[in-house]
């Protein structure tokens, strides 16, 4: 696995920094986030260092994302949340603070559990024609293998 010398998550994966491990296999490592936004807040990282989703190859992404249901189900069984948020931040402007791809699994308990994922919507600013234009622009930029 490729590792970055100064990456805190690479150091956690290597065991150089302690963590509260939830799950580990040959491709991923999952551990409790020290911030614990809600009880059980878990991070899932690929063992292979990749900075963000833009730089991640399909194989690494597939290995990471296919573990999500297993770990989310374990959180549900162990902690009995009423829901869960799956969150990923890419680049500093989106809130990424550790530049090693990671997914947050944030168990939800009620409206007072400390996490507020609500955002303002702008549906009135987008006509069906504008949405079609945006969709076509994105579609033409999807690379095929």
TrEMBL record:
Pfam (any one): HIT
BP terms from Gene Ontology: nucleotide metabolic process
Listed GO MF terms: catalytic activity
Placement of sequence motif Histidine triad motif: 100-104
Coiled-coil regions listed in the entry: none
Stretches assigned to the HIT domain: 8-115
Database matches in InterPro entries: HINT, Histidine_triad_CS, Histidine_triad_HIT, HIT-like, HIT-like_sf
Active site: 102 (tele-amp-histidine intermediate)
Gene3D superfamilies named in the record: HIT-like
The protein's name: Histidine triad (HIT) family protein
Organism the protein comes from: Saliterribacillus persicus
């Amino acid at each position: 696995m490729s590792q970055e010398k100064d990456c805190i998550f690479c150091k956690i994966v290597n065991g150089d920094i302690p963590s509260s491990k939830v799950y580990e296999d040959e491709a991923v490592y999952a551990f409790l986030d020290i911030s614990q936004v809600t009880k059980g807040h878990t991070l899932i990282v690929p063992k292979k260092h990749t900075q963000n989703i833009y730089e991640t190859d399909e194989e690494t992404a597939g290995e990471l994302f296919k573990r999500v249901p297993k770990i989310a189900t374990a959180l549900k069984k162990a902690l009995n949340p009423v829901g869960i948020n799956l969150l990923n931040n890419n680049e500093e402007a989106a809130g990424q603070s550790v530049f090693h791809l990671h997914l947050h699994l944030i168990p939800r308990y009620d409206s007072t559990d400390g996490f507020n994922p609500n955002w303002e919507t702008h549906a009135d600013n987008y006509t069906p024609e504008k949405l079609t234009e945006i969709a076509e622009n994105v579609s033409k930029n999807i690379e095929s293998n």
